[in-house]
Design brief:
The chain folds into two domains: 46 residues; 134 residues, Sandwich (Jelly Rolls). About 3% of the residues have low confidence. Helix 2 packs antiparallel against helix 3. A hairpin with a 5-residue loop joins strand 8 and strand 9. The chain is α+β, with helices and mostly antiparallel strands. It starts with a helix and ends with a helix. It has four helices and 14 strands. It is globular and about 50 Å long. Helix content is 22%, strand content 34%. Strands 1, 3, 4, 8, 9, 10, 11 and 12 form an eight-stranded antiparallel beta sheet that branches.
Amino acid sequence: HHVANAKKNGVSAREMAAILTHVAFYAGWPNAWAAFRVVLKVYAEDPLDLENPEAHGGIFGLGNPNDAYAQYFTGQSYLNPLTDPEKTQFIANVTFEPSCRNNWHIHHAAEGGGQILLVTDGEGWYQEWGQPARKIVAGDVVYIPANVKHWHGATADRWMSHVAFEAPGTDCANEWCEPVTDEEYAAL
């Protein structure tokens, strides 16, 4: 009810995302994520222009081309930082165009660590080394333990956005590995 009224009174999806991000630090991420699922339903009625990248990025917005990490992606991805890494844990919205995926990679940690993905829009794939790929959709939460080789990205015909953050840990470092081949991806 509150989200629907906010939308009726002109609160944009981007503004609602900012509100939920702010509230998450006070109410906790599980509570904010529960609210986010309601927001997805209320704002889902807005059509997406599939030819216009600016229409994508889900509730948190597209951001800019992810040029700094382009060498680790097949296809175009976009990065929209949601927090300042100088001040707090770095959290960002990552958007993948159709067929875009990142390379296999590992989030190393001696203790703790890992990565959490909150899928906010579209459809994608997530796969751990030696395991079958699984489809991920808006509303899914993916917990990736530390030291597990994996990749994630969009499906061939849909955009996909997720909020990504690395879980706190000690001696954390990312290792980028080989690309997911076109043959591996086409087999999904």
